[in-house]
Model the fold of this input.
Amino acid sequence: MPELKKGLIENVRPDIRNIKVNQIRAIDTEFRQIDGLLRLTLGEPDFNAPELVKKAMVDSIEKNHSHYSTARGSEEFRQAAANFLKRNYQLDFDPDTEILTTVGSTEAIFATLSTILKEGDELLVPSPAYPLYEQLAHVNHTKMVYIPTNDTDFVLTPQRLQETIAQHPNARAIVLTYPNNPTGVDYSREQLQQLADVIAKTNLLVVSDEIYSTLNYVSPHISIGTILPEQTVVLNGVSKSHAMTGDRIGFVAAPKELISEIVKIHQFAITAVSNPAMAGATAALNEGDAVTEQMRAEYQQRRDYLIPEFKKLGFDVAAPDGAFYLFLKIPADQNQDDVAFARELAHKALVGLIPGSCFGPGGEGYLRLSYAASENNLKEALARLQKYLAKSPC
Done:
């Protein structure tokens, strides 16, 4: 095993060395070592990719589609993405000039933020939030500004946004993730309009992460891109909607002037996206609406089953509007250190949950549960938690 020459580690950029590893993944990796643990940790659909997706990928391989695609992705996928956005969310994007195919929505976030952020800028993110945004802010020498929402039912209010903008004149962009990870909160058209009214008076760019857009339980998803198209970048993909997390296909939709700049970062990072994966994703977006609806209905059944059960156990939990997470407030009579309590539950109750503090300020004292798991596993997890909490000291 090679050992790095002494002193060479100093060649790594200091800001890179200071970046934290993905805490969600780190906790999950730690908990994987515990025998018999039920892991409700990752946002990983427990469904398999639809058969129509598998067939399209196999066809692509058999037709020897093993050569480079264009940097923006195949014409077929970009057209499918444009049709998907139009059909579901009334968004109008030209597939030739306004859509970029990426390696999952993660690369979409990376390429977008790396394009628009520079040293001295500030990035606004309602908290709690997916931890990727903070680390990418650090990579781009940008200050992360969390906007607390835990005192407004995890909803960003226009008043709080206006106050934050006034206090941070160097803000370059705001990330909106909805349905939200970890809280499941979604926004109505009225709420988005109120936020858009504030943003329209600024030069802020809205990075709208809508990867969970198909998993809504209350009302149809509304994209802020329909309200503020001239200031919005829409991010989406097939990972959550079609159980294709491992196929890594996402996309960016934005005005052509911005896409032309984002593609520069994208092409030098990955050159081009996998052709078989794009073929599968094309089939998913063109033909997979019914499969997505079946998944969404199953997730909703799990949500509706779990919420009253966790309330019986003493957890305060609001019904999420979408996605497949419960954000659980730790009962007052239990350890309020969410990292310590998550480890306690993992080792003693054999149930793996993610500490809320992994999602930044506002997440402390909470646990995130992913109910992208089978009904049997969810029932067993509840039984284990009930048994452990009944015996644990108050």
Summary: The mean pLDDT is 96.
